[in-house]
Amino acid sequence: MLIKSYFIQIWTQLRHHQVISAVSIAGTALAIFLIMLVVMMQQVRVAPFAPESNRKRFLHVKFISVTNGSWSGNAPMSIKIADECFKSLRTPEAVTAYTFKVESTPIGLPKQPAVNIDLLQTDDVFWRVFDFSFVAGKPYDEAMFNSGLPVAIVTESTAKTLFHTTDVVGRELLLNHVPYKVVGVVKDVSTLATTAYGQVWIPYTSTEITKDIWGEEIMGWMSCTILARDADDFDVIREEVERRRQEYNKHMLADGSELVYRGRPYDQEKNSMAFSASKEPDIGQVRRQRLIVFVILLLVPAINLSSMTQSRLRQRVSEIGVRRAFGSTRLELMGQIIAENFWVTLIAGILGLLLSVAFAYLGNSLLFALEFSPTSVPPMVDAGILLHASTFFYALLFCFILNLLSSGLPAWRASRVGIVNALNGRLH
To answer: Taking the model in full, what pTM does it have?
Structure first.
């Protein structure tokens, strides 16, 4: 009954103060809209979605470094380093090695023009670490990988482009003019899945890429992702990684050279900020910058909305006086005003959230464009990428904060008004 009375009161106030109410709702919706865009831009980097549903358990090693006195080199790792320093780890559930970025590669059929696709070379463990949705066939297994068979996994779009159907398991295609047999077809993958993304995946044993190494056989073209059994294992995994590094430096390197990881392996959040191979990202600074953005986006509209709340309360001075005369305490009066305003804020917040989701769909290329992206394919978004339980939690949280900021002070002032002054229409 209390909630019903609040809604009745809200509807009455909205009808009696249409202009102020419309401006208040629009201002609140705009604030939530902008805030949720910032939230979504962060969530697509760290929140789990297929095929990276295990992001909370990921640790990444995209690059490594070698130092020797006055010089240093930074690059992806060789397959030797991947095998000896990472794939041999005992603590994680699994460790996969793959080429550090997709490569634009021509693909086609005999006697047909080729098209360029994004190719990623992986090991067989890759398909256990990432949860791709197979619509046909299955991943290449350990036996196929070890034998170096020319087999490929393709996306639905790639299959349709080449064969005009997804029923292509067992058929042959030309990948950079080399015949490969299709063994599986998966649903299209968004470029926002920055580690797992590709349009075609092949075993790196089917090419010569692992032989392209330099820097005492340390540097190459490989990166690794570690799948922990639980996020609580991160510290233990990092300790094991450090022990392997020290052992490698002691027994394998000469002439004062040293293998350096620069704080790696990184968790998903830190990895999403790491755009330089030679510099460890300052996660604290990025979080502080994001907090400043949230504060600005909350305070500016809150100041404007506070004055509008004050204007609405001036129209209710007599009502406030009557409530005080009939025994309402100052705390009860403040609670009622804040609660009534919260429902208005919540309605506007829902509108702002819907607008942010719509804008994310329509403006995905602009909003989610990735820095230093190795592909020109525009980012693809869907509900599974944009909407998570945390999305609604943040929307509700920011609505609550904005409500407190915009109505708290006017409600406190209204509760301090004397009964006589209120009955006489004065808020002072």
So the answer is: 0.85
